[in-house]
Amino acid sequence: MLGFTVETHHDHQLRWTARTTTEALVIQVFGQVDAHNESDWQHMLRECAATAPERSLFIVDCAEMDFMSCGALVASAKQTADSRQLGVTMRLVIRQPSIMRIITKCGMEDSVSAYPDLDSALEGHRPP
Prior knowledge:
By secondary structure, the protein is an alpha/beta fold. It is 35% helix and 36% strand. The protein has helices at 38-51, 70-85, 97-105, 118-123; strands at residues 2-9, 12-20, 24-33, 57-68, 89-93, 114-115. A six-stranded mixed β-sheet has the order 1-2-3-4-5-6, sandwiched between helices. The longest helix is centred in the middle third of the chain and has 16 residues, at 70-85. InterPro entries: Anti-sigma_ant, STAS_dom, STAS_dom_sf.
């Protein structure tokens, strides 16, 4: 298992671990993404997506995150599109209603593939 920890500011910490399963490359993310560490978020997405094999799943599990800024979601949407160009399907696991509200308010439902849990993201089934 690959593991990474990035501390970007005393009060702003972003940590993630990467692992492969038979179905996907899964990145589990902890902490928060805001203006102080959005560049670290973008770097993590690019670097991890680059290791995903063609025609595979790349899942970013944000279920344990405290906060995601709109900028982080825009970066996620961009990486989703970039990954699609390389034949990789990127999905996010987002459990927090506050983050889902940001996706909805920013009109990003079609560009950010958000799922409520890892099993749903692996299977590609969103709840009704």
